[in-house]
Amino acid sequence: MGTIRLELDAGPVRPAELDRACGDLADDLRRVRHVAVTRAPGTAVDGAKSPLADSLDTLLLTGTFSVAVVRAVRDVLLAYLKRGQARSVTVERGGARMVVTVASDEEVAAVTSQLDAILGADAPE
Questions:
Q1: Do β-strands 35-39 and 56-63 pair in parallel, antiparallel, or remain unpaired?
Q2: 92 - beta bridge partners?
């Protein structure tokens, strides 16, 4: 089993908006088979005193990351960003880290191959 850390940057938003954006991504990722999605401890925005929340929230994905699962996670992340629900998502796995932002189609193609390399490096076929 492995772990992937996803840090969402939603920009300056109200706590409820950040919570919804993170929840939407978590719901999308829960549709990927063989992946468990949890919110990282300490990232919940309940009771925030500022009208604008810290723009970052973190999800943890755990599971067996086969090539098919990695590609499904990648596709969910790219679709989520394309919908404009976050400015960026930072993906961390092992020692590898990459910030993914809303991009053009050409940039998406380049990111796709980079994410495959980061997330699928040790995935069984």
A1: antiparallel
A2: 5, 97
Q: What share of the chain is helix, strand, coil (3-state, %, to 5)?
A: 40, 30, 35
- pTM, two decimal places: 0.72
Residue 13 has a pLDDT of 81
Written as six digits, the tokens of 83 are 């919908």
- Dist CA 108 CA 100 (whole Å): 9
CB 35 within 8 A of CB 17: no
Nearest to 95 by CA among 30, 2, 1: 2
- Alpha carbons 64 and 70: distance in angstroms, whole number: 9
pLDDT tens by residue, 48-106: 555 444 568 899 999 988 889 989 999 999 899 888 878 889 999 988 999 988 766 78
CB-based contacts of 10, cutoff 8 Å, min separation 6: 17, 18, 21, 22, 55, 56, 57, 85, 86, 87
Q: How far apart are the first and last CA of the chain?
A: 15
